[in-house]
Each structure stands twice: as C-alpha cells, then as structure tokens.
Fold:
Amino acid sequence: MNNAILKCENLTKKFGPVTAVDGVTLSIPRGRIVGLLGPNASGKTTLLKLCNRLLTPTAGQVSIAGHAPGVETKKLVSYLPEKHYLNEWMRAADLIEFFGDFYPDFNRERAYRMLEKLALNPRDRLKTMSRGTKEKIQLSLVMSREAPLYLLDEPIGGVDPAARDYILNIILENYNPRSTILLSTHLIADIERILDHIIFIREGRVVLNKTVDEIRAESGQSVDSLFREVFKC
Amino acid sequence: MLGKLLKYEFRATARLFLTFYLALIVFALLNAFFSTELLVKLEGSLVHLHLAGAPGLLYLILRLLYFALVVGVMVMTLLVMFQRFYQSLLGDEGYLMFTLPVAPWQHIVSKLLTALVWTVASSLLALLSVLIITTKVDLRLAWPGLSSAIGALLHNFGLAGLFLLPAITLAAAIAGILMTYAAITLGHLSTRHRMAATIGWFFAFQLAFIGLIIALLVLLLPGLIEKYDSATTPALFFQQLALQFFLLPSLALGALSFWLTNFILNRRLNLE
Structure:
C-alpha cells in the first residue's frame, strides 16, 4: 500500500525472555483514526515506542511515510507517551515556546486556545498542577502539531469520564482528515465512536485488523462487545 | 537545532548555578569584610577577647560556610552535568528529547558544551572568591601575584606551553565528561544493576585512560629522552611531554567515548 503512513514488518521486541511484541506486520493508511486495542500488558505501549525509536527492535522494521525512524520521521510524528515527560520547572507558556521552537508544524495559536478552554493560566508552572491537568496539557501540545501521524498512548487512561469527553473532543476538533491517528487504549466503550479502524493486540501479536464497518457488518457486534468476546478471561 | 538545544539546556540549569554563584560571592565578601575587621583589632591590645567572643565565632562560622559553599559548588557542578545527561536523555524526559527532530550527536554536544561552560564558570568563580577574600575586595592587589605566576609558567614551559596548559586542561575535562557520558550510556544497556554497571564502566574508562598514558610513556619516552640534547630547552621538552602523553590520549579517548555514546543512542536506545 503506497498510501501507508506507518508500516511495520515482522516487528519483534524481546525483553530478556519476555517477548513484548511478536512479529507484528501492519500497514496503516493516511486519513484514519485507528484504535490499537488490547488488555493491559498486551504490547501496545511497546509497539508505539518502537515506532518512535525509543526502543530498538529485536527484529523487523518500522517505516514512516517510507522512511526508517530518524530525524526526518520525527518531524512527521506527534507522539503522546503514557509517561509524564515534561519539565516540571517550566510554565505552560515555556512549553508552547519549546514545542514551537523544535517542531515546524506546531501551531502556537491552537495551543493557547486549548489552554484557554482548559481555563489554565499559561504563566502557571507545571509543578503546581495536578496530574490530570498535566496530562491535558501534554495532549494539547501534541494535538497542536499539524502532523501527518499522531501516536497517542492511552490518551484517556488516567482521567475521569468528564475529562475523557473533553480529550476526545480535542482529538476530533484538531483532526485533519489527511492525518492518521493511532491511539492505544483498553477503555473501548469510551472511544469507539471516533474510530474508523481497529487493531486488536494480544501477547504482542495482532489478532484482528479491520475497519469498524467491516466488524459491524461481519459480526453484527459493537467493537466493545467483540473485544469482550475476543479477550474473554 | 543545536543552538535551540543549548538555549534550553542553559535555561534548565542556569537558575541553580547562578544562585550558588551569588551565594559564593556574598559569602566571600562577608568573609573579606569580617576578616578585615579582625585584622584591625589585631593591632589593638584586646585580640584574644575578640577571638573568643561573638565576633570570633561569627568569623569562624562565616569561614566554614564559605568553605562548604566552595565544596558545594564543585560537587554540584559535577552532579548536575551527569544528572542532566541521565535524566534528560535516558530518564522520562528522554521521551520528549528523542522525539524531537534532532540527531543524537546534537544532544550529546549540547550537554557537553553546557557542562564545560559551567565547569569553567564554577572554577573561575571559586578563584574569584578566593581573590576577594585574600585581597580584601581590592582585586588590583591580586595582579602582582598572578603576573609572577604567569611569568614563572612562561619561563618554565615557554609561550606555546602557556597555551598548552589550558588546552590540556580543557581536553582532559572534555574527555572526562565524554567518558562519563559513555559509562552512563553503556550502563543503561544493562537490564539489571544499571548503577553498578555504570560505575564499572566509569572505572574501566579511567583505567583505559591511565593505561594509554603509561603505554605511551613506555613506548615513546625513551626516544624523547634520547633526542634530549643541548638544543632541547626544558620548555620544549615539556611541550613534547604534554602533547604526546596528555593531550593525545585525552583526544583519543574523548573521541572514542563520543562515538560509542552516539552509536548507542542512535542504534541501541531502549527507554523502558
């Protein structure tokens, strides 16, 4: 598929005796919102970190818009890690400055608009903020880039249901139809409504890779109930 | 991009360093003034009473605090340079730094240059504070001592030697920092006992450095002594020594460490 923004070929990552990602082969086209769904410890975070080259694969390859991960691909990928990775001593305004300095596709106005919606003072330092607030700032920064590929690791994992809606709205409002979003989560019911495409991952392997329409047509189920069926304990 | 990295690296560290430097100068000034006062009283007749009383105690406390600050600045300079490298590249902050469109070598260079600037600044500030105290704030008094020290260096090591000395110090500092970066990065490759592995690599690099110097001495010193004749001045001899036995090993191990660190960050990065 020439249109693919992200391709993984036989991608494998082992940590000692544990295989976290096991021979994953994927091709994700442009202009989709893709859910990377799986239970805890199924390899979602490892897969996204491999795509960002924060982890070196044991075997296999990743390519982003046809390039191996490197300086060029980092310009194309806007990544939200599951960790809190921002400098505590910085103010929200410093972070906007930082992102704007390094990423040519960063839209400062959009970032300030999002902070305004969150009723946050850009002069506040991060260390005075709650965990949930920091997560929202992190997501606002990541979504303020106009990137062809967003890799979002558990964007709604650590926040309350009201904030979940806020975050999903941020994602939808800032989504450009030519971009692709690959987001991982185990909270499927909350996120199902925004997804076009689903990838189920279990024990590091892709067990299902279909569009939402295909799933509904073939199984007559919602993604959430299919998930419960596939991952039944 | 390197310029931007440097800007943020200085911003991240400046507040801490500048606060320490300010405290250092304030305490040097306090020490200078209080010791002046003590000297004036030394000329009077009640010297022992003053020393045993409150002013004497205050003087002692100020002196101790000053020494603690000098040690503190040096320790902090070392700690911060390695902690910044570890935390910002291999800790959680690495998730941000390694997703910036920046090549790993630029990260290493930005950390190295910042560390060097703070090392030089801390050393100069410590020297300045000593001068403030010994000259009782009249820094012009320091000039005769400094100029005679420079004169002695010039006489013994020659003009080239005078430039070689800072060059060797700088090369040794660069090599030391890069070797420690390499030790931290190699230590990070271990899945368990990272701290122990880092310390092990650190000593391995130090041993390699000393081993290289000894090997060069054994191999090259006899030849150098053989060539030492009436035409060789001590200054020239020193320059040869410095160049071959200290500058070159520093550059060689510094370059190797840089290459290793860059290779691992490029090809073997694993942020867990």
Remarks:
- Chain A has one domain: 4-230.
- The first helix of chain A runs from residue 44 to 51.
